[in-house]
Structure formats: structure tokens, C-alpha cells
Amino acid sequence: MICATCGHDNPDRLVFCQECGQRLAPRVAPPTTPVAPPAPGPSPAPLGNTSPLAVGVVSRALAPAPAPVPTQPRPPPPEPPRGAATRCPGCGAPNDRSLRFCVRCGTRIEASTEPLVTAASELAQRSAPPSIEARPVVTLPVPARVCARCQGANDASARFCKSCGASLGDSPAYAEPPRPPVVAALDLRASEALAWRPRIVTIARDGGEGASFPLKDVTDLGRSEGDIMVADDQFISPRHARLTRRGERVVLRDLESTNGVFVRIPVPAGPHAACSEVPLADQDLFLIGQQVLKLELVKGAEEGLGAASQHGTLIFGTPTAPRYARLAQRTVEGITRDIFYVRKLETILGREVGDIVFTDDPFLSRRHASIRIDRESRRPFLADLGSSNGTFLKIRDEVQLKHGDHFRIGQQLFRLDLEPPTRPETS
Question: pLDDT > 90: what percent of the chain?
């Protein structure tokens, strides 16, 4: 079909010119004169010597008027194959990729590159399983040196032992033993497409989250045995602790390890909230900063001998005070170094402020924890004063953990997550 504007020859099925975009004039076939048999009646008189031109004129004048040709609506252009079509940006009609103007409205579609998605392709995309991005397995850092005094593991750049403070200048280089297979840690972001299960998350020294491990019905932790193994921590026993799922509860138990399992006691909910106290028993161990302290209740004669006299004369000396208990400082050498007596109904422990201070421990807060003695029952209670690194109590029997509870084995700190992480709301 020839465009009346630019003269471009277009296929008959098009409505708009593919060169200039103008609407093409509808193509109407010229009417043809119907041929009908002559009507019965008298023959027309001969015209005599009439010229052929006059005869033609008279014939056409006497011929009946042609019947009108019925016009039919122009069928819509055939829809091109869906796999090789683009949608018009104006009306959304499908067009062949080779066309420059829409066959329905004439809008220029040369710059439109939106592919037409077929129903089959939509169904395939919906039914296809979500792709999971492969992420590297997160492993715990490997220390490079072992302290010659306490056998504690330290980083390669450390100059002094983080456990006992000894110089690492003469310590031999750490020879890594053959490492047992470690359970692959799942990244929370990569496992969102999987079914979420309760898990424990390692907490790094800077407070950030490390590797996470989904919990089975029974999950054992250890250095060389169990489901989760930390081969680089020499303070962890071969099979150290066990986590057991009982319905919606998770129970933690010590498997007779050498150094025990420590659980963080509750912290105050706010700066003006009351401290949550936990009762202490005789021979209980608790951890503040790097200090491992054992509580020993004072019994018998240690509670006080009373005023002494000689030949009826009182002995002159420092005034006596009641002694409720004593704290024995346990060192990595396996011996007791210092002993501190609890003489007040409330004793504050910290790095700078308190009744018992450890000025050389950078992991302690200024006012870290307190020991309160009940006046009537003389029973001791331990409380955290909102410290940064927390106060941990060694467990004796199995304990039930709640969501967000922290526990420590060796030098590793873990957090229990019983609920899936919440997604941030997007506006």
C-alpha cells in the first residue's frame, strides 16, 4: 500500500506507514458494472449513422445504476508471535520487532525494547524454585601462638597473652594440628529461603555476629567431638556441652567438662531498672571480665572469734568486722592467687569503683557486679550492674535457656536464637 504522504510502499495489512507513521488511506476496490440480461420489451430504435462515441455515451446513460458494494469492517492486523514481539508504549498492542510504528495506534515503537512475556514463560518463572546465592562457609579464626605459661591461644599479632598477660616473644609458633571436619555454618541471609530452625550464633570479641549453627534435637559442642566443634580453643573439652530441644524449650547441660559452662545472668532492663539477682551457693564459680572467682561461705570460727584479751587486757588492733564469705581468685595456673573477704551486706566489684577492684582487667566495667547478703538468711545473691561484657555463672545442673540468652564455653561466646530474625519494614 502506497503512503500518500511519503510514497513508501507498505504491506497491505498495515494501517500506519512504517516510514513516516501517517495513517494509510483505506484501500477500496473500484466498482465494477454488473452485467445483466436485457430486460424484455421493445428494442430501441436504431441510431442510424451514429458515431461509436455517441453510441457509448447513450449506452452508459441508459444502463441501470450499479448496485452499491457493501463495505466490511477492516479486520484487525494479525497478532505476531508472542515470542518475537514488543508492546507498544502507547496502547500496549503487540507488534513485530521489525516494525517501527504501532499497527494499531501509530505510536513510534523503535525505542521500545520491553519483551512480551508469554503465559508459558510466566508459569515457568513462577514454578521455578528460588535461586540461593552460594556463600562461603564461615569458620572461626585460627590463632597463631600458644602461651608458654598457660597454653592459651592468641592471635598472630598479640605480644602478650590475653589470658595471663605473659610475654609471647619466646613462645613457639602455633603448629596447627589436623583439624577435624567442622559442621558448615549457615549464613542467616543465605538460609532465608530454607525452613528456619532454632540456632546458636557465635559472638565475636567486637560484639558482632559470627557463624550460626542450626540446632538438632540433640546438639553436642566440643573441641574434637560433637556436632559443633571448635578445634582451636584449648580451653574446651573434647565433648564439652549439650543442647537438647524439648518441644519449644532448649536445655543446656555440662558434659563434665574441665572448665564448665557459664551462662550470662540477666541484666537490668534500663538505667533506672532494678537489678535481677540470682542466688549463689557455696563453691559457685562466676566470671566477670577475665576474673574467675569462687564463692566460699565462711563457717565456724572464721565468722569471728570475738575480742581477745591477755591477762585481763584487751588486745589493741584493727576493729573487727563480720565476714560473710570470701572470694578466691582462680588463675590459669590452677591455683588460688588472691582471697577477698565479703564483709558488707553489699559488695561492689569493678575496674575503678567498688569494694573489690581489678584495675588491670580491661574487660571489666567501672562498676561491674555486686554481691548482696540477705541479713536474715545470710544467703548471698549475685547481680550484674549493667556491665558491657556481662556476668556469667557456672551451671551445676541442666538449665533452660530463653531466646537471646548467652552462654560461654572456653573462650567462645554463643547466643541462642529461638525466633527467626525480623525483616526491616520497607516503605
Answer: 36
Sequence-distant (≥ 6) Cβ neighbours of residue 56 within 8 angstroms: none
Cell numbers at 424, concatenated: 526491616
- Are the beta carbons of 150 and 161 closer than 8 angstroms? yes
Cβ proximity of 352 and 364 under 8 Å: no
Backbone dihedral region for residue 24 (phi beyond 0: left; psi -120 to 50: alpha; all else: beta): beta
Cβ neighbours for 96, distance < 8 A, ≥ 6 positions apart: 80, 84, 85
Yes or no: say if 241 and 198 are a contact pair by the CB < 8 Å rule. no
The residues, any chain, with a CB within 8 Å of residue 198's CB and separated by 6 or more, are 214, 215, 245, 250, 416, 417, 418
**Residue 208, amino acid:** G
Confidence (pTM): 0.55
Residue 287: helix, strand or coil by DSSP? strand
Which phi-psi region, left, alpha or beta, contains residue 7 (left: φ > 0; alpha: ψ -120 to 50)? left
Whole-number Å distance between alpha carbons of 121 and 125? 6
The grid cell for 101 is 510504528
Our CA dihedral for 145, 147, 148, 152, rounded to 10 degrees, sits at -120
- Nearest in space to 101 (alpha carbons), one of 73, 119, 77: 77
pLDDT in tens, 120-137: 445 445 544 444 344 444
| List of residues 6+ apart from 332 with CB closer than 8 A | 149, 150, 152, 163, 164
The 10s digit of each residue's pLDDT in 8-65 is 777 777 777 877 777 777 655 555 555 555 555 555 545 445 444 444 444 454 555 5
Q: What CA–CA distance (Å, rounded) separates 190 from 136?
A: 10
Q: How far is CA 298 from the centre of its chain?
A: 50
Which is nearest to 244 in space by CA: 277, 200, 298? 200
Task: State which H helix or E strand residue 382 sits in.
Answer: strand 380-384
H-helix segments, 63-99: none
